[in-house]
Amino acid sequence: MPVFLSYSHANKDFVDKLATNLVAARVSVWLDRWEMNVGDSLIEKIQEGLQDASALLVILSKASIESSWCKKELSVGLLRELDERKVVVLPVLLEDCLIPLMLRDKVYADFRTNFDEGWHAVISAISGVTSLDMGRIAENNYYTDWSEDWGELQGQTIFNFNFAQASQQSKHTILTQIQIVATQESTRRFQGYVAAGLEWFGRFVILESIIEAAQKTDLRFILEDSFPRTQHVEVADQKSGLGYSVRLSARRLGEDTGKDILVDGFEMLKSIHTQVAGRIRKLTPSEAKKVSQIIAG
Fold it and tell me: Rounded CA gap, 67 and 93, in Å?
């Protein structure tokens, strides 16, 4: 899901610099001048952008607080905060101005004297809603915190998906790791993404490949006690022919409820994919060309 930039066109130069920096930091950005085409409905496109955004960066300036469009966009963001019960609106103070009443209790990113200081505050604020390396998934009676790390061992790329799943009702936690070891050919493909500066996209593609290939495997087991369990499967993406070795391991901590617990690695990877897909930005035309060249070999 992108970050929506709400601003006055009087501040176009600043917003262009901010948006360019965000894209360079691998943040998906919704900027009206980048998204609009001739003939598009202004109201419809902005409404879609506001609804789909992971966060709303509100650029506060003398011009923006007088803009009727900016006021409407801010209202939508604040309503989403109330409805979704999470932080959506992130204020960015460009210059001294009368801060809207509903934003006065929020900490803002201050760009009035130093762009770098304001930039660090912005990137820190949006990391929780745009990170491709970690997150939290809330489902039914559980919330699952996850992270991904990766590296190489003996010439093969390894991806580790780490999970801490806690029950909101029972006093126990499930620690799970899904380790994916790429074959030599799969490693070469990923190294192509890294060399092209598209490591983030390569990881997403591999996650999709694993999910597609693992649909017909039984990547799950039952935890009956405190002892760890492990399962290992070999999978291959039929479209690309690339193979991966997948190792699922898990154990339970906390109070013994006397109930067995199902650990489903496939569903856990699907949940991460859904979350990352909502955060990942679109490829630029030049990046899409690089991807085609990587796939072509």
Answer: 15
Fold of 3-130: Rossmann fold (3.40.50)
Going from N- to C-terminal start, the domains of the chain cover 3-130, 134-296
Produce one character per residue of 212-245: b if its CB has 16 or more CB atoms within 10 Å, e if not: ebbeeeebebebeeeeeeebebebebeebebbbb
Sheet bearing 243-254, strands edge to edge: 134-139, 142-153, 156-167, 172-182, 243-254, 229-236
At 254-286, the pLDDT tens digits run: 888 788 889 999 999 999 998 888 777 677 788
pLDDT digits (tens, 9 = 90+) for 151-205: 998 899 999 999 999 876 777 899 999 999 999 999 999 999 999 989 989 999 9
CA-to-CA distance for 170 and 284, rounded, in angstroms?
Answer: 46
